[in-house]
């Protein structure tokens, strides 16, 4: 929905998805952007020299979707995808989808969760 294309096409082995791939596959795909499922992977991929062969990593085009109170783009499927698709479209195509993420996130949480986010709360959600 955000306009990106998943380059990892595979047969799903279970209902949950999240199929594993090898570093060699990722290097061969030459992705422009990586959306990671593990926050620690983001940090380690940016630090480990072996990942520098991946265009997205060398460009620091890697992100971990916010997950509070629910994942913004994965499971469980929820209304949080409404903010998640905006976040991802802005990451992938910032010139086409400009977004004041901090202001929009505060507005979204107030509208859908009746929560007034402090700047510290927002930092925790977006890091």
TrEMBL record:
Among InterPro entries, the record links this protein to: ABC_Transporter_SBP, ABC_transptr_periplasmic_BD
| Residues of the Fe/B12 periplasmic-binding domain | 1-96
The transmembrane residues are none
The scientific name of the source species is: Rhodoblastus acidophilus (Rhodopseudomonas acidophila)
* UniProt name for this protein: Fe/B12 periplasmic-binding domain-containing protein
- Segment forming the signal sequence: none
Q: Its GO biological process terms? A: cellular response to iron ion
């Amino acid at each position: 929905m955000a306009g990106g294309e998943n380059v990892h096409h595979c047969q799903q082995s279970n209902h949950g998805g999240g199929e594993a791939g090898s570093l060699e596959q990722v290097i061969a795909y030459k992705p422009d952007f990586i959306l990671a499922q593990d926050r620690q992977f983001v940090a380690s991929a940016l630090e480990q020299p072996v990942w520098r062969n991946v265009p997205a990593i060398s460009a620091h085009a890697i992100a971990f979707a916010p997950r509070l109170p629910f994942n913004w783009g994965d499971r469980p499927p929820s209304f949080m995808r409404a903010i998640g698709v905006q976040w991802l479209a802005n990451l992938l195509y910032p010139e086409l989808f400009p977004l004041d993420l901090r202001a929009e996130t505060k507005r979204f949480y107030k509208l859908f969760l009746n929560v007034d986010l402090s700047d510290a709360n927002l930092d925790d959600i977006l890091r």
